[in-house]
Design goal:
single chain; 150 residues; alpha/beta; Rossmann fold; four-stranded parallel β-sheet; 6 helices; 11% strand
Length: 150
Amino acid sequence: MADYRQKIYRYYSSNRIGRLAPETVAGFKPRESYLKKLIKEHFPRDKNIRILEIGCGHGAFQYYIAQAGYTNSIGIDGSEEQVKEAHRLGIKNVILADLVEYIKRVEDNSIDLLIAFDVIEHFTKDELSCLVDEFYRIIKNGGKDDNSYT
């Protein structure tokens, strides 16, 4: 991870006015309808699909993905503080990892759904070019099928 990112992510949650993560999962309520709508409109019916969320922060989307019954989802984030907040909130499928290094270890064509909110802008153009190639490598072949999606 680049030195400037280490400086930013080391205190990503605490270097701000007010808390980034809520005290409890009830604090996710303002985002609930939006996140549930995304799941309803864009996730397949198969609850066993393999989902990877990069830059998941303190795990709000992971919380709603689990609430919707998806059983094979993982969130990764480069901020130790964010991951600790997710675990404090009871969201255990959030792990601390360098995004680039993690993605390089994922098997080809093994991810059904890749989610990236507010993360792409954290990379340089050159890094992003390589990262997008990795996204294409890990995402399963095929596309949206009217019979498999709600």
